[in-house]
Amino acid sequence: MPAGAGRPLAVGGRSTYGVRMTIVTAPKTTGRVLVVILLAQFIIVVDSTFMNVSLSTLVADFDTTVTGIQNAITLYTLVMAAFMIAGAKVGDIIGRKRAFVIGLSVYSVGTSITAISPTLAVFILGWSILEGLGAAMMLPAMMSLIVSNFAAGPARAKAYAGFAAIAGIAAGIGPIIGGLFTSYLSWRLAFASELLVALYIVTQLKIIKDAPFLGRKPRFDWTGFILSAAGLITAVLGIVMASAYGLFISRVDVEIFGQVVLAAGQVSPTVILVSIGLLFLIAFVLVERSRDRHHHDTLLDLSLFGIRAVSAGTAVQLLQYLVLTGAIFALSLYVQMELNYSAIQSGLTLLPLSLAVLLSAAVSGRVFSRRFAPRSVILAGFAIIVVGAAAMGVLARDATSGTEFILGLALVGFGAGTIASQNQNLIMSSVKPQRSNETSGVINTSQNIGASLGTSLAGALILSVFVLTATTLIDSSPVFSASEQSQLDTAVTEKAQIISDAQLSNAVAELPADQQAEILEINAEARQTALTVVYAGLALAGLLGFAAALRLPRTPPLSSTGAGSTDTSKAGTGKQP
């Protein structure tokens, strides 16, 4: 029997019923391993933003609505969030490299189906579900593979920093990539190119050293998995449904199989589903604590959150991506529907954000890391984001061109890149290598919850504010009679969608000229007000991120700590569990 089999393993002075990973000090590693891992990270994260600029094209190709495409974008990150912790645990059971290969295979099948999808349903199956599931297997394994392929100290710290920075870069430049493919080739080829990257990664698998482990393999915690997945999916889907029904009060009847279960004017399904989701998550926490007390394997070791860098850092990760993806989605929707921009024009509008992410990730990783503590750099990043989001909200009131958003976009991008260069590195440096896989699952879960919430909340808030503003303007307009106002109010409330002026003009072509002009003006003003409110909300999320970052431990600059090898979180946290 192998040493340690059948009994709990001691890690850091406490018993665990997980896997003990043998830490291999890798020989001097070429840059090829890091390139392979960063490429995998790049295609996964870029997927969450590169279709935002193709909204109008996808709506036309699939004969659907903006809300349908928004749901597909949200579902991709939601699937990753719901299955990420489970993916990390599977990696513990079957091995990190094997989990990475299986995830890469599922991801490749998904991107192939997406590239040839004839309908929105098939598109969602390939992109949102299969690619999301593949990514949930790959991402946690990749963080552990960094441990086994890079020696503890500066080499591992740089690999962690690169892994974190490439996520911010991919999210930032995704709109440019999507715009180029959609305008000059096809959005389908964007997904096909991901398959080529995946095939290249397959050819390089032999150079990646696995993370071997000894001891008893943990059993999969099915109860914890069902509760956590149900909680996350239910809560986020509830927020997604706010676009169609409203955040708090349902705008229209909610029907299931033709039966009205909630009448218009009653509580929104968003409130009900989010509440149910939170109950599932509370049950998950209680079950995991009970299993731990009885020395049963758990899906997630909740003691991780006793490490302040982990608990505060995951909140930072969530809020950073909420702001970044929300900003990209909201502005992409605005310039395509308000300014009638093409995919490439939309991508170029977001170029200041992309360039700022690239610049800040490089500067923060190479310069700020050497001079300033991660906590200070992250706080500065959120302060910059708040200023940028607030500036965009002000500009949205009277903007007539995408160029007017340059300053605000650059600030949001610079702040996001600054945070990305520090936060993951700080979190991973605070835990022992044996716990890298599980910690990675937590980090990536929070990141994808943030991305899901960013897109879904931005969409929901835009429509809610749009409906409220449009109906208010209609009711105060002298152009319409009382009966016409009532009819228009009903139409806006029940069929709320963000559409272009051209689409609206076709829809109201039979009305008198003065009423057509009035409707177009109301539509434009309601959209502008909605965007202003959304960016005010994103600025508030940035402030919440700043508050979360205040809880991060005070540590020296990461470049001076030998990140990745020691526990840097002891300041103000006590001994690591």
From TrEMBL:
SUPFAM superfamilies for this protein: MFS general substrate transporter
Location, primary (coarse class): membrane
Domain Major facilitator superfamily (MFS) profile: 33-487
Membrane topology note: Multi-pass membrane protein
Localization in the cell: Cell membrane
Coiled coil: none
Gene Ontology molecular-function annotations: transmembrane transporter activity
Region Disordered, annotated ranges: 557-577
InterPro entries cross-referenced by the UniProt entry: MFS, MFS_dom, MFS_trans_sf
Keywords carried by this UniProt record: Cell membrane, Membrane, Transmembrane, Transmembrane helix, Transport
Residue intervals passing through the bilayer: 33-55, 67-88, 100-127, 133-152, 159-178, 184-203, 224-247, 267-287, 318-337, 343-365, 377-396, 402-420, 453-474, 530-550
GO CC field: plasma membrane
Full protein name: MFS transporter
